[in-house]
DNA sequence: AATGAATGAGACTTCATTCAT
DNA sequence: GATGAATGAAGTCTCATTCAT
């Protein structure tokens, strides 16, 4: 049911996430995918090409989801909570992908890195924009919006390092918890209108 | 003034941080330190030994500083702010060390990893303890203390990835900003005694 | 109009001549012929078979033409001039073929080499015979007939390396020039019957 | 007595000459030199670097010897005979070197090729000059000086393909024979003053 | 203290070739 | 006819490490 190409991607994801790009050999990759190392080259270009493909796939999905959220509402707290929820959820569901994207950029050659970083920047710009908007609208209170962006992204991405889908915490719970942390970090005080329930009353004026 | 051994450590720090452990060759290491690759082996055991040494040095300093703070006061918000300040400051001052510690654990063999992870766990336990204490004392309001710990640590460690000592933000400022973010994330509302007064509107109703 | 098989031969000729047998991959060959590498094997045996086919085709044509000339006259100078003219002309017209034949014998396995070298020897024997005849008849004056044969063949084959069909020198001119060089090299002085009159001062004393 | 580096060069010369550059593997090279393939890399850069070194060494020797001859006399026939003698002698004495230089230029990457071809062109220019001079002074009679140059060089280089130092023909004899062939090819008629004996009477006026 | 020389193992990648479809 | 998939062997080169000097 799964094609060979998909098996190659899956194997690469697992090994790159676990041992790093440089820590993973072509032969291990082949063995993990159930192929000979020569056959591997039917399904990829270079090893670096494979890494780039994985990264691009992952980042493009993230950007797409992010842009959808960005266009969904003008309300900054809502948008931010949604971004956090989406980000955390996808990091929890696809921890391998996101770890590879987050940790292996340094393994790319300059030209490839540029391409990948451009995508990542596009995604981060969405976050920057919500925060800027929230600060502008008076919903958020932070000294430095860019520090806040970095702090939020780091903290949310960390989920890929520990979340256990078989554990007792559900994805919804996780998303709500992180959204709450994020909003508080941004200086939003707990108000039924802005915490999870908020989405029900989109016309609520901003607090603080 | 700098001994050869120190030069080796410095070179390793730079290269491991920039290209990763597996991405750094013994020959590059030697060249970067101004030695022949054979001579390198006078100043280190294996390449992995070198990595462990760097990690242990860094982590021990962190643990020592953390334990000093942990023993300094019972007041959870103060302790947490101090931990954050120290953590952030040292990540800003020693970005190479901290990046190596944070990113290269996967490159260690199981037995070495155990040793390093034990140290890291000891450090993280200090954070866990403050948060638990703060929750117990009613200063902090979080759903999950362990999630909060992880979120805080990730967010604070990120500083090593972007802080520029030559930029316009000073270390003190940085520490204060992050302490404030952390306390807010933990649900602490503006209190002149624990957070910089400026940022907070003292008349805010304040939830929880 | 050109069959696929011919396209394969043409592609092989070009690539073998340009990059050598070992420098040419099956995949490049296929691409150059506009086929997949698997399809290539419908039109050839092994890569070495292909090389042998090209060589044999080329050498057989040469031998055939040479034998025709050899049987055409008893006059050694005429025969030699004709051989030179034919050799030079075919090297100018089919530089790829001749370069492959001349340069890639070393790439053949012993048994295949034997076969090809036998053909080449047969061709060279024709030259040897004319020279021997010319020496015997007193037309040629050389110390060593075999050295003369080698010198002549090398010199004439070189044409395949530089002759430009689009340049200003025509094939007829080329053939005449080389025939003249060859006859002079063999010690034949200008004789209106065998060499272009223009180049020779008919009153030259003329040695033997 | 022979250094390892020299052994590597000797092994490369033998194999490149016998099987061609692309036909020679690194492992065969190492085995032939009595080293492991990894050790080989102590004594060379890439395989191509090795080839270039061999070619440059050989060509530089040839250029040096050629320039010495070029500066030794103004008499074109003498100079040409000396060039031929030197060329033929060195091709007979160092057949491996010269074969590699003559046959493997196509294996070089563009930039390397440029460098090597420049040297070769410098050498060939010496030949072109003598022929031009001889034509100008009326000693040589050829329709095309550049064709003559090519013909002569091809014919003389061929020696590296068959001369057997253990055979009955001595080097001196070989040189004389080829000089005689060359002069005749250039239209110089046999005159004691220009054939081998000529060098004894350097003041002899030009013949023809 | 320092290093040139050496190496087995393994890196990534391509080789020529076969075969089922 | 034609080709995608597959592979063992081999390609060039670098790896971390040792050792005699």
Automatic annotation (TrEMBL), chains A, B, C, D:
Keywords: DNA-binding. It comes from the Bacteria. InterPro entries: Homeodomain-like_sf, HTH-type_TetR-like_transc_reg, HTH_TetR, KstR2_TetR_C, Tet_transcr_reg_TetR-rel_C_sf. Residues 2-62 form the HTH tetR-type domain. It holds the Pfam family TetR_N. GO terms for molecular function: DNA-binding transcription factor activity; transcription cis-regulatory region binding. PROSITE patterns: HTH_TETR_2. Residues 25-44 bind DNA. This is HTH-type transcriptional repressor KstR2.
């Amino acid at each position: 049911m799964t094609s060979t190409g998909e098996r190659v991607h899956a194997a690469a994801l697992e090994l790159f996430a676990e041992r790093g790009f440089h820590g993973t050999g072509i032969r291990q990759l082949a063995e993990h995918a159930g192929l000979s190392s020569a056959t591997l080259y039917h399904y990829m270009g270079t090893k670096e090409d494979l890494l780039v493909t994985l990264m691009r796939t992952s980042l493009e999905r993230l950007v797409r989801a992010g842009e959808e959220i960005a266009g969904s509402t003008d309300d900054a707290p809502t948008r931010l909570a949604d971004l956090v929820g989406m980000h955390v959820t996808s990091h929890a569901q696809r921890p391998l992908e996101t770890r590879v994207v987050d940790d292996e950029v340094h393994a790319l050659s300059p030209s490839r890195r540029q391409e990948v970083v451009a995508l990542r920047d596009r995604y981060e710009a969405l976050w920057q924009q919500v925060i800027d908007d929230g600060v502008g609208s008076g919903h958020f209170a932070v000294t430095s919006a860019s520090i806040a962006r970095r702090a939020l992204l780091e903290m949310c991405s960390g989920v890929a390092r520990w979340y256990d889908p078989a554990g007792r915490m559900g994805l919804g719970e996780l998303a709500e918890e992180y959204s709450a942390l994020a909003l508080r970090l941004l200086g939003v005080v707990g108000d039924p209108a802005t915490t999870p329930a908020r989405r029900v009353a989109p016309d609520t004026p901003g607090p603080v």
